[in-house]
């Protein structure tokens, strides 16, 4: 490599390149020159004595690597080791040796300092990029860990939703023995998930992502994700039906909205919301429905079916919600009074007019009231179940539901199943 370079002719413009290559130090059978009758030549061992020393084949002379590159930067006046080259071998080494003298010269010292600095110097942009790279890597690691933790918290939220359980506890303070389902699950999982445990240990309370607000936000994100899927499927299906019903709970009225559609040859019924309504008039309910469909960008013109109950605010031909929808553009529709509601009404009316049926259910209702009305009587009932070895089928007596008449079937089944036990209980009482 050095054969291609020569300090006598090499350009020093590209400092980076020359610094990376180092001094030119060829090893060869150096030519001899006669000095005062003595035949002398450059000695290879001098390389090890002076780390800056270079040899020029062209000039059979030595140069200084440091001064050659940095001499002009430090105000170098001497040119022997820089331009002409030193080749007086007789005076090269020894106490008064020129090589040693050059080593100690002010000019050389300054050039050497520059060379050393340059060698270990990392340009400022490289230094900054190193810091930036380190910072970026740290932030990426943090981001990765945060994502892992967020996924676990989301999973806990999803799990509790699927279990249909309450998130919070009555007392969520750290001192509480039961902080509620959500916090309990997070802390339980942390025992087996080191990043989550680290997260709980490291961060102060307000950035833990565990507050009720964050829980609600996560539930909303999941709900929106599900709505996006429903929206995509309804759009793909194009035509859909809508089913609505109102319910009152804790002095507030709500309307459930269900969409029914066929996607990939499968019938889907998907609830898109349980919305609070301030008024139960047809117009008010219509407004809420149109707003919810609008949010999903589902056009009214593709609505082909409307299933509501028979109440006038729903079914009314002038002010009912079904007519309001038609007026608003849902013209393809077929309105039908929900079949389940109809069946329920028919059964109710039939039962009211048939005395034997009325008697059966009033008796069953009375049995329930007597047996469930006191813990002592219920305990007797439980013991009789064991005595008669009634273990399978329905054994628990239930309260009647007036709005879901068909649910009375459960009571009927339970009564038939436990009949010997009930008769025994009541005959003993009598
Ligand atoms: Zn020098």
Automatic annotation (TrEMBL):
InterPro entries hit by this protein: DUF4371 (IPR025398), RNaseH-like_sf (IPR012337), Znf_TTF (IPR006580)
Residues annotated as transmembrane: none
Pfam family, one: DUF4371
Coiled-coil intervals, chain numbering: none
SMART domains xref list: ZnF_TTF
Protein's name according to its UniProt entry: Zinc finger MYM-type 1-like
Annotated source species: Paramuricea clavata (Red gorgonian)
């Amino acid at each position: 490599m050095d054969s291609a370079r020569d300090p006598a002719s090499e350009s020093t413009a590209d400092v980076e390149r020359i610094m990376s290559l180092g001094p030119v130090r060829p090893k060869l059978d150096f030519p001899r020159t006669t000095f005062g009758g003595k035949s002398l030549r450059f000695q290879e061992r001098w390389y090890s004595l002076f780390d800056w020393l270079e040899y020029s084949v062209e000039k059979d002379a030595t140069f200084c690597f440091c001064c050659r590159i940095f001499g002009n930067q430090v105000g170098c006046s001497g040119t022997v080791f820089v331009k002409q080259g030193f080749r007086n071998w007789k005076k090269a080494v020894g106490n008064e040796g020129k090589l040693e003298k050059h080593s100690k010269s002010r000019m050389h010292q300054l050039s050497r300092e520059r060379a050393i600095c340059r060698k270990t110097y990392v340009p400022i942009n490289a230094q900054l990029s190193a810091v930036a790279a380190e910072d970026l890597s740290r932030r990426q690691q943090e981001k990765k860990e945060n994502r892992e933790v967020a996924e676990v918290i989301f999973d806990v939220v999803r799990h509790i939703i699927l279990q249909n359980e309450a998130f919070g506890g009555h007392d969520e303070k750290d001192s509480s023995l039961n902080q509620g389902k959500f916090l309990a699950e997070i802390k339980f999982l942390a025992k087996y998930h080191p990043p989550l445990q680290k997260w709980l240990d490291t961060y102060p309370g307000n950035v833990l992502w565990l507050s009720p607000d964050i829980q609600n936000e996560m539930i909303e994100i999941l709900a929106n994700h599900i709505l996006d899927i429903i929206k995509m499927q309804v759009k793909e299906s194009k035509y859909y039906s809508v089913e609505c019903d109102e319910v009152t709970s804790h002095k507030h009225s709500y309307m459930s909205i269900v969409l029914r559609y066929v996607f990939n040859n499968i019938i889907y019924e998907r609830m898109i919301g349980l919305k609070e309504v301030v008024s139960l008039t047809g117009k008010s309910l219509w407004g809420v429905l149109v707003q919810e469909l609008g949010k999903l960008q589902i056009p009214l013109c593709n609505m082909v079916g409307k299933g509501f109950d028979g109440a006038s605010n729903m079914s009314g031909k002038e002010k009912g919600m079904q007519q309001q929808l038609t007026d608003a553009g849902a013209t393809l529709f077929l309105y039908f009074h929900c079949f389940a509601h109809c069946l329920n009404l028919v059964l109710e009316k039939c039962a009211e007019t048939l005395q034997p049926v009325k008697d059966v259910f009033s008796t069953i209702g009375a049995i329930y009231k007597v047996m469930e009305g006191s813990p002592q009587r219920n305990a007797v009932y439980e013991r009789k179940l064991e005595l008669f070895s009634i273990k399978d089928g329905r054994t628990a007596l239930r309260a009647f539901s007036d709005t879901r008449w068909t649910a009375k079937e459960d009571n009927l089944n339970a009564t038939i199943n436990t009949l010997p036990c009930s008769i025994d209980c009541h005959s003993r009482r009598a």
